[in-house]
Design goal:
153 residues, alpha+beta, Nuclear Transport Factor 2, Chain: A, 2 domains, four-stranded antiparallel β-sheet, 23% strand, globular, DUF3887 domain-containing protein, NTF2-like_dom_sf
Length: 153
């Protein structure tokens, strides 16, 4: 009987360890898996913004860079990470997080429009809870956020 309890505990321990290790996928693999869900992509984009993780933002962004390039002539046109960083730290882009997803509209299986309100990282309201629309669109089999972070000149 003592042996059966030990085997049972060993099996339980192995199950727990397997479950814990499954949660240890590298962040890039998790992000890749989730590029099929527009809600997750939107949340990952703004989570990356709040952490100033510009590499991840570049991966999740599907819009154009023309305004960023125009406002940062000293930055290489293909240095998307630096363009995002400058936008958020110099050019008037705001580092915020989602406060509320007010509305989600499905345009098609490949495009969604979200109406969002934001808050600053210190949890104060951004622009008196101003509502801003964001589009999440499927591009090359992955959803991407089409707009830059909120801008205040």
């Amino acid at each position: 009987m003592h042996r059966n309890i030990t085997k049972g505990m060993w099996i339980l321990l192995c199950c727990i360890l397997t479950t814990l290790l499954a949660g240890c996928l590298p962040a890039d693999e998790k992000a890749t898996e989730n590029h099929q869900d527009p809600d997750l992509v939107l949340n990952q984009y703004f989570d990356a913004l709040s952490k100033q993780d510009y590499d991840t933002m570049v991966k999740l962004y599907g819009g154009d860079y023309e305004s960023l390039i125009g406002n940062n002539p000293s930055v290489a046109k293909d240095d998307y990470k630096k363009l995002f960083e400058n936008y958020c730290t110099i050019n008037g882009g705001n580092i915020v997080k989602i406060d509320t997803i007010i509305e989600k509209t499905k345009i098609s299986d490949e495009e969604y429009i979200y109406k969002l309100s934001f808050k600053y990282l210190d949890d104060t309201s951004f622009e008196n809870r101003k509502q801003i629309e964001y589009t999440v669109k499927k591009i090359d089999d992955s959803f991407k956020v089409m707009e830059l972070p909120p801008y205040i000149p």
